[in-house]
Specification:
The strands form five sheets. Strands 1, 2, 3, 4, 5, 6, 7 and 8 form an eight-stranded mixed sheet that branches. The protein has helices at residues 2-8, 63-78, 115-130, 198-204, 206-222, 237-249, 254-257, 327-332, 368-373, 424-429; strands at residues 13-29, 32-49, 52-59, 99-103, 135-153, 158-176, 179-185, 192-194, 229-235, 287-290, 311-316, 319-320, 342-343, 352-353, 358-360, 377-389, 395-407, 410-415, 418-423, 431-434, 441-450, 455-463, 466-475. By secondary structure, it is of the alpha+beta class. It is built from ten helices and 23 strands. Helix 1 packs parallel to helix 2 and helix 3 runs parallel beside helix 5. The chain starts with a helix and ends with a strand.
Length: 476
């Protein structure tokens, strides 16, 4: 609070974050141990002077460290042109001061689990995959991350929170004279990671799933390629999560919409004045950003400018209902409150608009089996392998690890190298069924990149399997 008091007379607004982070990655790849453990602690200070932002960071936790960061933040803000007129310096939506503490659920601290235990689990899973003769690369990995944060601002905010993330996954790569195929479990983005402790890794049952993962990788080598056609496509939850991430989540980040990301990751096809008038998909499309979801990577007590976690409707019955915003961007388009979406990677980066847990709400189509049974002809696709989307989040192409042909309401032969492509509004306009709440689950993305200098963030996307009509599908 001394640092905040020092800033209060020199800036129209200031906030301070003290962050301590500990992360560990443990993996086995064909018997080779891959270990990475890192720790950092420091202070990040953000100030607003004459409508301009300044940011400074310093390693350590002492008073001198904080004063050094504050001095550099003030110098940076004061060096910029005056951005506002007299009496209009703040330019932020109002927010009640954040106070209190938040601790994410964690039953078994992953950093208290011995390295020997972790390696033994991974060795069993890796060995089970390597029993398949065609698997040339087997990788099993677990990851853990802990972040402790104290936040204070000149508006009177003071909170602390601790979040622990933990998860793991498997990758089997099969090779023969025809090429290479891969299968991952539970997903292709570091497996599945959640805000939880080691109990989450135990629930994944890496050893029990290893033989199936290896067998499917080998089977893909002799599977026929996915045929090219315009057809009905059913996406499994992990693949659908990435579709939501790339074509909906990023497209609705308000800083992108307003041009703030134009020099790096692009802009958005969505206009800033589109709330209530722009159609993004069919009437079955309902999307919510929810930073309160238990276990999800984009959840917290408060964001990195002190806005309390909340659920925000983004798309309702296919129509644009809201944006992922900060206090500044929300004020710029006349919203009454920030969406609470400001997050920073560690203490060395300034908070920017990041998606929280952007999820497709469940529908009424029953189970996956019932959805397939109600589909006369089409393709069912699982597990993302690659993706590409243009700078406006409009034109895209996604590849899956595996697909299955649907005929007469049944899954038929496995298909390799499946790819689908489209444009965002047309693709979501073809959404005609989403499975029921019993099928809804979270998928994780741990490497979402954004900003200059670049930052990584973790986020989860909830969805149930969904069906899309008139999709261009082929092989790649």
């Amino acid at each position: 609070m001394d640092l905040v008091d020092a800033a209060s007379g020199r800036a129209s607004y200031a906030d301070v974050r003290h962050v301590r982070m500990l992360a560990e990655d443990v993996a086995l790849r064909n018997g080779e141990r891959l270990l990475d453990r890192r720790e950092e602690e420091g202070i990040g200070v953000r100030v607003r002077v004459n409508g301009a932002w300044g940011f400074g960071a310093a390693r350590g936790s002492g008073r001198a460290d904080g004063e050094d960061a504050l001095a550099r933040a003030l110098a940076l803000a004061q060096a910029q042109p005056v951005a506002v007129g007299p009496g209009d310096e703040l330019g932020l939506t109002p927010e009640a001061p954040a106070t209190g503490s938040h601790t994410a659920p964690c039953e078994i601290d992953p950093f208290e689990v011995s390295l020997g235990h972790k390696l033994e689990l991974l060795a069993q899973a890796e060995a089970a995959m390597r029993c398949e003769p065609l698997v040339s690369v087997a990788r099993a990995q677990v990851s853990s991350r802990s972040e402790e944060k104290i936040f204070a601002s000149t508006e009177g905010a003071l909170y602390e929170q601790r979040i622990v993330e933990c998860g793991g996954g498997l990758v089997a790569i099969a090779v023969d004279g025809s090429g290479t195929q891969v299968r991952s479990y539970p997903g292709s983005h570091s497996g599945h990671v959640a805000q939880a402790g080691w109990e989450h890794v135990a629930e994944l049952d890496l050893v029990g799933n290893a033989p199936r993962v290896a067998a499917e990788a080998a089977a893909l080598l002799s599977a026929p390629v996915c045929p090219s056609d315009r057809t009905t496509l059913i996406l499994a939850k992990e693949q659908l999560g990435l579709q939501i991430h790339e074509s909906v989540g990023h497209a609705l980040e308000l800083d992108r919409v307003l041009g703030g990301e134009a020099s790096y990751a692009g802009t958005s096809f969505v206009p800033a004045d589109g709330i209530g008038s722009m159609r993004l998909g069919s009437e079955v499309m309902n999307v919510t950003a929810d930073a309160t979801l238990p276990g999800a990577l984009g959840s917290f007590g408060w964001d990195d400018e002190g806005v309390q976690a909340q659920a925000i409707p983004l798309v309702g019955e296919g129509m644009l209902r809201g944006f992922l915003s900060s206090r500044e961007s929300a004020a710029e388009i006349g919203l009454s409150r920030s969406g609470g979406c400001m997050r920073a990677e560690g203490f060395t980066r300034q908070p920017i608009v990041r998606m929280t847990n952007v999820s497709l709400d469940p529908g009424t189509a029953g189970t996956l089996e019932e959805l397939i049974a109600g589909t006369q002809r089409g393709i069912y696709m699982e597990t993302n392998r690659s993706w590409s989307i243009d700078s406006r989040r409009l034109h895209f192409q996604f590849a899956g690890e595996a697909a299955w042909e649907i005929a007469d309401g049944r899954l038929q032969r496995m298909l390799r190298d499946p790819v689908y492509a489209g444009t965002t509004p047309h693709f979501w306009g073809g959404l005609d069924a989403v499975c029921s709440p019993s099928e809804w689950a979270l998928a994780s993305v741990t490497n979402c990149g954004k900003g200059e200098p670049g930052q990584l963030a973790s986020v989860s996307h909830g969805s149930a399997p969904a069906r899309f009509r008139d999709v261009l599908v082929g092989s790649g």
